[in-house]
């Protein structure tokens, strides 16, 4: 496989930055132009995992609309749902659950994350309760 040029690498770094920073329109544009929606960085983080971790619900929605894999995990076994739970972002968690994310999926599931970090509001949300903010 040929090595990427500096310009190509810079472009891809910018795509990951767009996910982190919640630049949903830019993400839509680049994915629609052919960037894989499940593109991963050197840690195995997908654009969806990064958007969820950085509390970017609009970016999460754009990626889901374009077919992002809600169950894909990074190299540490964390899913986008687990990232949203860890950050205690109820909107991101609800969006991922509505898209079919499994709270029990992955080596470090969202449920496990809520239990380990003692996040009862997130655990209730994952279990279908309404006590989450």
Q: What's the SSE blueprint?
A:
Layout: H1 6-21, H2 24-32, H3 47-53, H4 57-65, H5 80-86, H6 90-98, H7 110-116, H8 120-126
Helix pairs in contact: 1-3, 2-4, 3-4, 3-5, 4-6, 5-6, 5-7, 7-8
Describe this structure in words.
With 133 residues, the protein is an all-alpha fold. The protein has one domain: Serine Threonine Protein Phosphatase 5, Tetratricopeptide repeat, CATH 1.25.40.20. The chain is 53% helix and 0% strand. It has eight helices and no strands. It is elongated and about 45 Å long. The protein starts with 5 loop residues before the first helix and ends in a 7-residue tail after the last helix. 40% of the residues are buried. The model has no long low-confidence stretch (mean pLDDT 94).
Protein traits:
133 residues; mainly alpha; Serine Threonine Protein Phosphatase 5, Tetratricopeptide repeat
In short:
This protein has 133 residues and is mainly α.
Mean pLDDT: 94
Number of strands: 0
Query: How many strands, which pairing sense, and closed or not: the largest β-sheet?
Result: none
What's the end-to-end separation, in Å?
47 Å
Global shape: elongated
CATH topology: the name is Serine Threonine Protein Phosphatase 5, Tetratricopeptide repeat
CATH architecture: Alpha Horseshoe
Order of SSEs: HHHHHHHH
Overall number of structural domains: 1
DSSP strand content: under 5%
User: For the CA atoms, what is the radius of gyration?
Assistant: 15 Å
Q: CATH class, anyone?
A: Mainly Alpha
Helix content: 40-55%
The structure class reads mainly alpha
Low-pLDDT ranges = none
Separate helix tally: 8
Per CATH, the superfamily is Ankyrin repeat-containing domain
């Amino acid at each position: 496989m040929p090595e990427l040029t500096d310009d190509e690498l810079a472009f891809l770094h910018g795509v990951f930055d767009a996910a982190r920073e919640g630049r949903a329109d830019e993400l839509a544009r680049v994915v629609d132009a052919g960037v894989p929606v499940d593109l991963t960085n050197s840690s195995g983080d997908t654009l969806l995992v990064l958007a969820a971790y950085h509390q970017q619900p609009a970016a999460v929605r754009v990626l889901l609309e374009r077919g992002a894999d809600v169950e894909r995990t990074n190299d540490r076994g964390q899913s986008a749902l687990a990232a949203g739970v860890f950050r205690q972002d109820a909107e991101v968690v609800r969006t991922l659950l509505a898209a079919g994310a499994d709270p029990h999926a992955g080596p470090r599931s969202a449920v496990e994350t809520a239990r380990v970090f003692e996040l009862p509001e997130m655990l209730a949300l994952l279990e279908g309760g309404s006590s989450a903010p």
